[in-house]
Design a protein that fits this description.
single chain; alpha/beta; GMP Synthetase, Chain A, domain 3; Rossmann fold; 2 domains; 9-stranded mixed β-sheet; 3-stranded mixed β-sheet; 12 helices; 14 strands; elongated; binds adenosine-5'-diphosphate; binds magnesium ion; ATP hydrolysis activity
């Protein structure tokens, strides 16, 4: 593995030779008779409904539809170009193309020819994507970036991250997760992701689970090998996740941070200056105490602390009574203390009960908001997700793009 690259071989930035994305050829030599040509146009229009499962853009915009022809007997032939040979989602694309073309009136059978893009076509595709991708760290970015932090490990950061992400995606938001706990990565397991990211040269396409785009160092290591890296490599890994991974436009990007106030938390604040933090604790005093440190990092970095989530708050017993194995009040105390330190209100956004199905869901790779959305824990997680999503993004660092005028005098 080259020294400057955390995610071999995605180290260098390409210098594209042709900045114009190729529009798919409008009339194909395969379409000869006028009515066939007319039908071919309609098939092409119908294919705009097919998205590349990874890039999440219409295949017609990506230059993936090479040619469309409809024969006199109504048989449509569509030539599709995959980004790379051996694309794991080939069957999905072929099925979706077949279904979409079949919806056009006058089309009978559908044949899909599958080809692979030339390096030039791939370069054009990438350039088209790059110019549209929103750099999450840029001042004008509309993506809300939230780091999930805690004082110590084992309090439920990763469980919270994946469940919030899945809940937001189920509500129709475009969501991504970066597993920034590089040394202790756990997100792929929690979401049941075994698929490796697809690479289009230097660009990495994140796998999608439950509608959430996910990237983790766990997708780049063999088996259960440990990642043993020092700070600079951790920084480089996070930087590459942010630059080389194509997330497309996102509403929310969640970062599952390592516990404490280490290198990655600092890197996050540097690479994503407009990002905010969510701090997780258990009700235990000791856990809340160390979480104060993780949250008060924000005084140094200028990040906004969106709120506190208390996890493992109680266990409901069969008779309906609540047992509090970790004590009580840690979340509220942490929120009060952070409000004091940061000089701005930091709310307690919710308290999640202990729920065996939450743990089981993690082990099985199915987050509880998906597997048991009506359980008390999932309901609380969904409510927290909605609170976060409905909060207007902080305006810090955002250009307003308006010229101030004198307000009308109050009536
Ligand atoms: N509310 C909960 N109820 C039951 N188990 C939980 C709950 N929250 C977390 N867990 C379990 O606790 C363990 C630690 O959670 P995890 O999300 O990995 O924490 P962290 O990322 O902070 O280290 C996991 O086994 C997880 O399944
Ligand atoms: Mg974790």
């Amino acid at each position: 593995m080259p020294e400057d690259s955390a995610l071999d071989p995605a180290a260098s930035n390409p210098t594209p030779s042709n900045p114009t994305p190729s529009p798919a050829t409008a009339s194909s030599p395969m379409a000869s008779n006028p009515s066939g040509e007319d039908l071919a146009g309609r098939v092409r229009a119908a294919l705009a409904a097919v998205q590349d499962p990874e890039l999440r853009r219409p295949i017609t915009e990506l230059g993936m539809v090479d040619a469309v022809a409809v024969a006199a007997d109504g048989t449509a032939t569509v030539r599709v170009l995959l980004t790379v040979s051996g694309c794991p989602l080939r069957t999905t694309i072929v099925d979706d193309v077949t279904a979409a073309a079949g919806t056009v009136e006058g089309v009978g059978a559908v044949r899909v020819d599958v080809g692979v893009m030339t390096p030039e076509q791939r370069a054009q595709l990438k350039e088209g994507l790059r110019t549209r991708a929103v750099p999450f760290g840029a001042p004008g970015s509309l993506t809300r970036v939230i780091g999930v932090a805690s004082g110590k490990g084992g309090v439920g950061k990763s469980s919270l991250t994946v469940n919030l992400a899945c809940a937001m995606a189920a509500d129709g938001l475009r969501v991504g997760i970066i597993d920034a706990d590089v040394l202790g990565f756990s997100v792929p397991g929690l979401m049941g992701i075994t698929q490796a990211p697809t690479r289009v040269d230097e660009m990495i396409l994140p796998p999608v689970a439950y509608g959430v785009k996910v990237i983790s160092i766990g997708m780049f290591v063999q088996g259960n090998q440990p990642v043993i890296w020092r700070g600079p490599m951790l920084h480089r890994a996070l930087e590459q996740f942010l630059t080389d991974v194509h997330f497309g436009d996102l509403d929310v990007l969640l970062l599952d941070l390592p516990p404490g106030t280490g290198d990655v938390a600092i890197s996050m604040s540097q690479l994503l200056p407009g990002s905010s933090l969510l701090v997780v604790t258990t009700p235990q005093s000791a856990a809340a105490e160390v979480a104060v440190r993780a949250g008060s990092v924000a005084t140094q970095t200028g990040q906004e602390v969106l709120g506190v989530v208390e996890n493992m708050s109680w266990l409901e017993l069969p008779d309906g009574t609540r047992m509090e194995p970790f004590g009580s009040g840690g979340g509220a105390r942490l929120a009060a203390r952070l409000s004091e330190i940061l000089g701005t209100p930091v709310p307690l956004l919710g308290s999640i009960p202990l729920e065996p199905r939450l743990r089981e869901g993690g082990d099985d790779g199915v987050p509880i908001v998906v597997s048991a959305p009506d359980s008390a824990a999932a309901a609380e997680l969904r409510a927290i997700a909605r609170t976060l999503a409905s909060r207007p993004r902080g305006l810090a660092g955002l250009p307003l793009g308006i010229t101030p005028t004198r307000p009308d005098p109050a009536p």
